[in-house]
Amino acid sequence: MTGESGGLPAGSHPRHALAPLLNAPVRLSVVAALAPVDKAEFGWVRDLVEVTDSALSKQVSALEEAGLVAVHKARVGRRPRTWLSLTPDGRTVYRRHMAALRAIAEG
Predict the structure, then answer these.
(1) What is the mean pLDDT of the chain?
(2) What pTM value is reported for the model?
(3) Residues near 17 by Cβ (< 8 Å), separated by ≥ 6?
C-alpha cells in the first residue's frame, strides 16, 4: 500500500519515529544537555536550559517516569546534590528522535 508521499508505504514518514515526550522544548533541551555527558548536576542543567528549579523538576519527573532519565541524590559535605543522567533507553530514544528530525529537515 502506498500513501500520498510519493510512493512510500503508509506510515514511513520520519515523523513516526519522533518521541512524543521530546516534542516539548524543555524536555528535548534537557535530554540534549545530558547526551554528551555521563551525568550532570541539576543546577548546571537548570542554568544551561534556562529554566527555574520547579520547571526543570517537573520536566525531569516526566522523563524519569518514562525511563529516559535517572536521578541520583547524594550529599556533598552538608549540601544535598542531585545529578541527572540519561538511561540507555534515553540515549536510544534521543538518537532516534534526532535522526527523525534530521530526516524531516532534509526532506
Answers:
(1) 91
(2) 0.84
(3) 96, 97, 99, 100, 103
